[in-house]
Amino acid sequence: MMNELSLLLVEDNILNQKLIFLNLSKYGFVIDVAHNGFEAVEKFKERKYHLILMDVMMPVLDGMEATKQIREIERDKGGHTFIIGLTANTYDADKEKCLVAGMDAFMNKPFDFEVLKGIFNELGINYNK
Question: What's the whole-model pTM score?
Answer without folding.
Answer: 0.91
